[in-house]
Recover the amino acids of this structure.
């Protein structure tokens, strides 16, 4: 089975980063390139425009990134364009970032609560996650979702820990709807 474009190029960048001892440098560059791509609609439009030829697109990459990121990162971006994968820049770099985070034992957690948490509460949540996982540190994202009513929902990769009151009420409602009382079994 063919590997995804993000895996092939992301793995190659990761291996190069490890071999050259530039993991932190490439991580910062990858995050910077993603910021440029996300915040600049014109860049994405030019890179995906059918009337702009490949040579012009390679020149755009050089003008935007050369001297701002390493030659290796520019080379990756150029290679993605040469292989008609420039639309995959973000997914390749996000895959690379995930590999680096796994390598450095950094977790990404999203915590949703019905109201804003205090700094002390945020610290407690992070400490608890560090105690119950194998991660050395976390990049935390906090979201407010009033529909949760109470409790919280924590997402780490594909794991979800849901202790929200909304979910507990939903489970209870489901369980109660499955209870079937037979006529005559109820006490008068």
């Amino acid at each position: 089975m063919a590997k995804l474009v993000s895996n092939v190029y992301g793995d190659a960048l990761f291996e190069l980063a490890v071999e050259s001892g530039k993991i932190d440098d490439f991580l910062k560059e990858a995050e910077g390139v993603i910021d440029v791509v996300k915040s600049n609609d014109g860049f994405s439009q030019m890179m995906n425009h059918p009337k702009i030829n490949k040579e012009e697109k390679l020149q755009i990459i050089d003008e935007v990134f050369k001297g701002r990121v390493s030659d290796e990162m520019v080379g990756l971006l150029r290679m993605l364009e040469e292989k008609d994968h420039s639309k995959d820049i973000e997914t390749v770099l996000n895959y690379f970032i995930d590999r680096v985070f796994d390598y450095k034992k950094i977790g990404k957690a999203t915590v949703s609560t019905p109201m804003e948490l205090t700094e002390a509460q945020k610290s407690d949540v992070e400490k608890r996650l560090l105690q119950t996982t194998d991660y050395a540190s976390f990049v935390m994202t906090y979201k407010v979702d009033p529909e949760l009513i109470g409790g919280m929902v924590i997402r780490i990769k594909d794991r979800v820990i849901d202790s929200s009151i909304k979910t507990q009420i939903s489970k209870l409602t489901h369980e109660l709807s499955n209870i079937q009382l037979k006529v005559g079994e109820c006490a008068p």
Notes: The mean pLDDT is 91. Helices lie at 5-20, 23-39, 41-48, 54-65, 71-82, 89-103, 119-132, 165-178.
